[in-house]
Protein backbone atom coordinates (compact mmCIF):
# COMPACT_ATOMS: atom_id res chain seq x y z
CA UNK A 1 0.00 0.00 0.00
CA UNK A 2 2.79 2.35 0.92
CA UNK A 3 4.51 1.69 -2.42
CA UNK A 4 1.28 2.59 -4.29
CA UNK A 5 0.98 5.84 -2.33
CA UNK A 6 4.60 6.69 -3.07
CA UNK A 7 4.02 5.99 -6.74
CA UNK A 8 0.98 8.27 -6.85
CA UNK A 9 2.87 10.96 -4.97
CA UNK A 10 5.74 10.69 -7.44
CA UNK A 11 3.40 11.01 -10.41
CA UNK A 12 1.71 14.08 -8.90
CA UNK A 13 5.06 15.74 -8.15
CA UNK A 14 6.34 14.98 -11.64
CA UNK A 15 3.21 16.56 -13.09
CA UNK A 16 3.66 19.67 -10.97
CA UNK A 17 7.29 20.01 -11.98
CA UNK A 18 6.37 19.62 -15.64
CA UNK A 19 3.62 22.23 -15.33
CA UNK A 20 6.01 24.68 -13.72
CA UNK A 21 8.72 24.18 -16.32
CA UNK A 22 6.47 24.51 -19.38
CA UNK A 23 6.56 28.15 -20.46
CA UNK A 24 3.27 29.98 -20.50
CA UNK A 25 1.86 30.43 -23.99
CA UNK A 26 2.30 34.02 -25.13
CA UNK A 27 -0.85 36.03 -25.82
CA UNK A 28 -2.36 35.67 -29.26
CA UNK A 29 -2.51 39.46 -29.50
CA UNK A 30 1.27 39.64 -29.20
CA UNK A 31 1.76 37.28 -32.11
CA UNK A 32 -0.74 39.30 -34.12
CA UNK A 33 1.05 42.57 -33.28
CA UNK A 34 4.41 41.15 -34.38
CA UNK A 35 2.95 39.89 -37.63
CA UNK A 36 1.29 43.24 -38.36
CA UNK A 37 4.62 44.96 -37.68
CA UNK A 38 6.39 42.68 -40.15
CA UNK A 39 3.68 43.36 -42.74
CA UNK A 40 4.08 47.12 -42.33
CA UNK A 41 0.57 47.67 -40.94
CA UNK A 42 1.89 49.81 -38.10
CA UNK A 43 -1.42 51.43 -37.13
CA UNK A 44 -3.04 48.04 -36.54
CA UNK A 45 0.06 46.80 -34.71
CA UNK A 46 -0.14 49.81 -32.40
CA UNK A 47 -3.77 49.03 -31.60
CA UNK A 48 -2.85 45.42 -30.73
CA UNK A 49 -0.07 46.59 -28.42
CA UNK A 50 -2.46 49.01 -26.72
CA UNK A 51 -4.93 46.18 -26.21
CA UNK A 52 -2.18 44.09 -24.62
CA UNK A 53 -1.30 47.00 -22.33
CA UNK A 54 -4.88 47.26 -21.12
CA UNK A 55 -5.14 43.52 -20.57
CA UNK A 56 -1.82 43.14 -18.72
CA UNK A 57 -1.69 46.22 -16.52
CA UNK A 58 1.20 46.92 -14.14
CA UNK A 59 4.77 47.37 -15.32
CA UNK A 60 4.18 45.19 -18.40
CA UNK A 61 1.70 47.75 -19.66
CA UNK A 62 4.55 50.25 -19.94
CA UNK A 63 6.41 48.03 -22.38
CA UNK A 64 3.35 47.49 -24.52
CA UNK A 65 2.54 51.20 -24.57
CA UNK A 66 6.11 51.92 -25.68
CA UNK A 67 5.74 49.43 -28.53
CA UNK A 68 2.46 51.12 -29.49
CA UNK A 69 4.19 54.51 -29.56
CA UNK A 70 6.97 53.07 -31.73
CA UNK A 71 4.42 51.64 -34.18
CA UNK A 72 2.54 54.94 -34.30
CA UNK A 73 5.80 56.66 -35.21
CA UNK A 74 6.49 54.16 -37.99
CA UNK A 75 2.95 54.83 -39.22
CA UNK A 76 3.53 58.61 -39.06
CA UNK A 77 0.73 59.17 -36.55
CA UNK A 78 2.76 61.63 -34.54
CA UNK A 79 -0.08 63.33 -32.68
CA UNK A 80 -0.78 60.33 -30.44
CA UNK A 81 2.79 59.31 -29.58
CA UNK A 82 3.13 61.72 -26.66
CA UNK A 83 0.03 60.28 -25.00
CA UNK A 84 1.38 56.75 -25.31
CA UNK A 85 4.72 57.76 -23.81
CA UNK A 86 2.98 59.46 -20.89
CA UNK A 87 1.35 56.11 -20.15
CA UNK A 88 4.70 54.37 -20.45
CA UNK A 89 6.23 56.51 -17.74
CA UNK A 90 3.15 56.21 -15.51
CA UNK A 91 3.07 52.41 -15.77
CA UNK A 92 6.81 51.75 -15.67
CA UNK A 93 9.11 54.66 -14.67
CA UNK A 94 12.17 52.49 -15.36
CA UNK A 95 11.47 52.98 -19.09
CA UNK A 96 12.11 56.73 -18.88
CA UNK A 97 15.19 56.58 -21.12
CA UNK A 98 13.38 54.58 -23.79
CA UNK A 99 10.52 57.05 -23.64
CA UNK A 100 12.89 60.03 -23.79
CA UNK A 101 14.57 58.63 -26.88
CA UNK A 102 11.28 58.17 -28.68
CA UNK A 103 10.10 61.64 -27.63
CA UNK A 104 13.21 63.12 -29.22
CA UNK A 105 12.70 61.19 -32.46
CA UNK A 106 9.06 62.24 -32.62
CA UNK A 107 9.99 65.89 -32.06
CA UNK A 108 12.48 65.66 -34.93
CA UNK A 109 9.88 64.08 -37.19
CA UNK A 110 7.48 66.95 -36.51
CA UNK A 111 10.22 69.60 -36.86
CA UNK A 112 9.97 70.70 -33.23
CA UNK A 113 13.70 71.16 -33.04
CA UNK A 114 13.92 72.95 -29.69
CA UNK A 115 11.93 70.14 -28.05
CA UNK A 116 14.10 67.54 -29.74
CA UNK A 117 17.24 69.27 -28.46
CA UNK A 118 15.83 69.23 -24.92
CA UNK A 119 15.07 65.50 -25.01
CA UNK A 120 18.36 64.43 -26.57
CA UNK A 121 20.40 66.72 -24.35
CA UNK A 122 18.67 65.33 -21.26
CA UNK A 123 19.43 61.77 -22.35
CA UNK A 124 23.00 62.60 -23.37
CA UNK A 125 23.69 64.20 -19.98
CA UNK A 126 22.23 61.27 -18.02
CA UNK A 127 25.29 59.47 -16.64
CA UNK A 128 23.10 56.59 -15.52
CA UNK A 129 21.88 55.85 -19.03
CA UNK A 130 23.44 53.04 -21.07
CA UNK A 131 26.33 54.16 -23.25
CA UNK A 132 24.50 53.33 -26.49
CA UNK A 133 21.58 55.56 -25.53
CA UNK A 134 23.91 58.42 -24.71
CA UNK A 135 25.96 58.02 -27.89
CA UNK A 136 22.90 57.94 -30.11
CA UNK A 137 21.45 60.99 -28.35
CA UNK A 138 24.81 62.74 -28.74
CA UNK A 139 24.81 62.24 -32.50
CA UNK A 140 21.31 63.66 -32.75
CA UNK A 141 22.24 66.54 -30.49
CA UNK A 142 25.32 67.41 -32.58
CA UNK A 143 23.13 67.74 -35.66
CA UNK A 144 20.72 69.98 -33.79
CA UNK A 145 23.60 72.22 -32.70
CA UNK A 146 24.50 72.63 -36.36
CA UNK A 147 20.91 73.57 -37.04
CA UNK A 148 21.29 76.25 -34.35
CA UNK A 149 24.43 77.48 -36.13
CA UNK A 150 26.72 76.36 -33.33
CA UNK A 151 29.32 74.04 -34.93
CA UNK A 152 31.69 74.45 -31.98
CA UNK A 153 29.08 72.95 -29.66
CA UNK A 154 28.41 70.17 -32.17
CA UNK A 155 32.12 69.31 -32.22
CA UNK A 156 32.24 69.34 -28.41
CA UNK A 157 29.36 66.89 -28.19
CA UNK A 158 30.85 64.59 -30.81
CA UNK A 159 34.15 64.48 -28.95
CA UNK A 160 32.28 62.88 -26.04
CA UNK A 161 30.52 60.30 -28.21
CA UNK A 162 32.32 56.99 -28.01
CA UNK A 163 31.43 55.83 -31.52
CA UNK A 164 32.06 59.14 -33.30
CA UNK A 165 34.91 59.07 -35.80
CA UNK A 166 36.89 61.50 -37.94
CA UNK A 167 34.24 61.42 -40.68
CA UNK A 168 31.58 62.78 -38.36
CA UNK A 169 33.88 65.43 -36.97
CA UNK A 170 34.92 66.21 -40.54
CA UNK A 171 31.28 66.72 -41.51
CA UNK A 172 31.07 69.52 -38.96
CA UNK A 173 34.23 71.13 -40.37
CA UNK A 174 32.92 70.90 -43.93
CA UNK A 175 29.62 72.47 -42.91
CA UNK A 176 31.39 75.22 -40.97
CA UNK A 177 33.65 75.98 -43.95
CA UNK A 178 30.68 76.27 -46.31
CA UNK A 179 28.38 79.23 -46.69
CA UNK A 180 24.63 79.52 -46.87
CA UNK A 181 23.00 81.23 -49.80
CA UNK A 182 21.11 84.47 -49.15
CA UNK A 183 17.42 84.28 -50.15
CA UNK A 184 17.47 88.08 -50.53
CA UNK A 185 20.35 87.93 -53.01
CA UNK A 186 18.62 85.06 -54.80
CA UNK A 187 15.48 87.14 -55.18
CA UNK A 188 17.34 90.16 -56.54
CA UNK A 189 19.26 88.02 -59.00
CA UNK A 190 15.95 86.49 -60.05
CA UNK A 191 15.10 89.85 -61.64
CA UNK A 192 17.24 88.51 -64.48
CA UNK A 193 15.37 85.29 -65.41
CA UNK A 194 17.28 82.19 -64.38
CA UNK A 195 20.09 83.95 -62.55
CA UNK A 196 18.52 83.45 -59.12
CA UNK A 197 18.37 79.70 -59.70
CA UNK A 198 21.95 79.64 -60.97
CA UNK A 199 23.11 81.44 -57.81
CA UNK A 200 22.04 78.40 -55.77
CA UNK A 201 23.41 75.87 -58.24
CA UNK A 202 20.09 74.94 -59.86
CA UNK A 203 21.35 75.42 -63.39
CA UNK A 204 18.68 73.32 -65.10
CA UNK A 205 15.91 75.37 -63.47
CA UNK A 206 17.80 78.54 -64.37
CA UNK A 207 18.07 77.56 -68.02
CA UNK A 208 14.41 76.59 -68.13
CA UNK A 209 13.41 79.93 -66.63
CA UNK A 210 15.59 81.83 -69.09
CA UNK A 211 14.18 79.99 -72.12
CA UNK A 212 10.53 80.31 -71.10
CA UNK A 213 10.81 83.99 -70.22
CA UNK A 214 12.67 84.57 -73.48
CA UNK A 215 9.92 82.87 -75.47
CA UNK A 216 7.21 84.91 -73.81
CA UNK A 217 9.11 88.15 -74.42
CA UNK A 218 9.59 87.18 -78.06
CA UNK A 219 5.87 86.44 -78.31
CA UNK A 220 5.03 89.84 -76.81
CA UNK A 221 7.23 91.62 -79.35
CA UNK A 222 5.82 89.67 -82.29
CA UNK A 223 2.16 90.17 -81.35
CA UNK A 224 2.77 93.87 -80.66
CA UNK A 225 4.38 94.31 -84.08
CA UNK A 226 1.41 92.56 -85.71
CA UNK A 227 -1.01 94.59 -83.55
CA UNK A 228 -2.59 91.39 -82.23
CA UNK A 229 -3.53 92.99 -78.94
CA UNK A 230 -5.66 90.13 -77.66
CA UNK A 231 -2.81 87.67 -78.01
CA UNK A 232 -0.43 90.30 -76.63
CA UNK A 233 -2.57 90.68 -73.48
CA UNK A 234 -2.70 86.89 -72.96
CA UNK A 235 1.05 86.49 -73.42
CA UNK A 236 1.91 89.39 -71.12
CA UNK A 237 -0.32 87.85 -68.43
CA UNK A 238 1.62 84.57 -68.61
CA UNK A 239 4.94 86.41 -68.78
CA UNK A 240 4.18 88.31 -65.58
CA UNK A 241 3.50 84.93 -63.93
CA UNK A 242 6.74 83.38 -65.17
CA UNK A 243 8.77 86.50 -64.41
CA UNK A 244 7.56 86.74 -60.82
CA UNK A 245 8.18 82.98 -60.62
CA UNK A 246 11.82 83.65 -61.51
CA UNK A 247 12.09 86.06 -58.57
CA UNK A 248 10.40 83.76 -56.07
CA UNK A 249 12.32 80.84 -57.54
CA UNK A 250 15.58 82.57 -56.70
CA UNK A 251 14.40 82.95 -53.10
CA UNK A 252 13.16 79.36 -52.80
CA UNK A 253 16.25 77.86 -54.41
CA UNK A 254 18.43 79.61 -51.80
CA UNK A 255 16.29 78.14 -49.03
CA UNK A 256 16.55 74.69 -50.64
CA UNK A 257 20.31 75.00 -50.92
CA UNK A 258 20.64 75.86 -47.23
CA UNK A 259 18.26 73.07 -46.20
CA UNK A 260 20.04 70.45 -48.31
CA UNK A 261 23.46 71.54 -47.02
CA UNK A 262 22.31 71.15 -43.43
CA UNK A 263 20.58 67.83 -44.04
CA UNK A 264 23.68 66.45 -45.73
CA UNK A 265 25.76 67.39 -42.69
CA UNK A 266 23.22 65.88 -40.28
CA UNK A 267 23.15 62.68 -42.33
CA UNK A 268 26.94 62.47 -42.27
CA UNK A 269 26.97 62.94 -38.50
CA UNK A 270 24.41 60.19 -37.91
CA UNK A 271 26.19 57.79 -40.27
CA UNK A 272 24.61 54.34 -39.87
CA UNK A 273 23.24 55.05 -36.40
CA UNK A 274 19.82 53.56 -35.77
CA UNK A 275 17.89 51.53 -33.21
CA UNK A 276 15.28 48.81 -33.35
CA UNK A 277 13.23 47.25 -30.52
CA UNK A 278 13.55 43.52 -29.93
CA UNK A 279 9.91 42.43 -29.99
CA UNK A 280 10.86 38.89 -29.03
CA UNK A 281 11.24 40.02 -25.41
CA UNK A 282 8.38 42.51 -25.24
CA UNK A 283 6.98 43.74 -22.78
CA UNK A 284 10.62 44.17 -21.82
CA UNK A 285 11.83 47.08 -23.94
CA UNK A 286 15.27 46.15 -25.26
CA UNK A 287 16.68 48.31 -28.03
CA UNK A 288 19.28 47.08 -30.50
CA UNK A 289 21.53 49.93 -31.61
CA UNK A 290 23.80 50.04 -34.62
CA UNK A 291 26.42 52.70 -35.39
Strand order of the largest sheet: 1-2
**Assembly type of the shown chains?**
single chain
- Estimate nothing, just give the exact number of structural domains: 3
Structural class category? mainly alpha
End-to-end C-alpha gap:
69 Å
- Average per-residue pLDDT, rounded, comes to 88
Name the helicity range: over 70%
Number of strands: 2
Quickly count the helices.
14
Low-confidence stretches: 1-23
Bin the strand percentage: under 5%
Structure report:
The protein has 291 residues and is mainly alpha-helical. It has 3 domains: 30-110; 112-178; 185-267. The protein is built from 14 helices and 2 strands. The protein has a two-stranded antiparallel ribbon with strand order 1-2. α2 packs antiparallel against α3 (42-56) and α4 packs antiparallel against α5. The longest helix is centred in the last third of the chain and has 42 residues, at 229-270. The radius of gyration is 30 Å and the shape is elongated. Mean pLDDT is 88; it is low at 1-23.
Concise structural overview:
This protein has 291 residues and is an all-alpha fold.
Amino acid sequence: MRSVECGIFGIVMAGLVAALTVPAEEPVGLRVARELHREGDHKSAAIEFRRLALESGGADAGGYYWAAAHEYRLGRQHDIIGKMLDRVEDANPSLSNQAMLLRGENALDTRQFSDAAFYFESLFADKGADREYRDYAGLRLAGLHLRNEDPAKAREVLSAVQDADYKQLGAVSVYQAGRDKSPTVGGFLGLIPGLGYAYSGEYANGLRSLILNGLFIWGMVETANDEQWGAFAAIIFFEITWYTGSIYGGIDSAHRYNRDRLQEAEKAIMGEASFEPDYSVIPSVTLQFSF
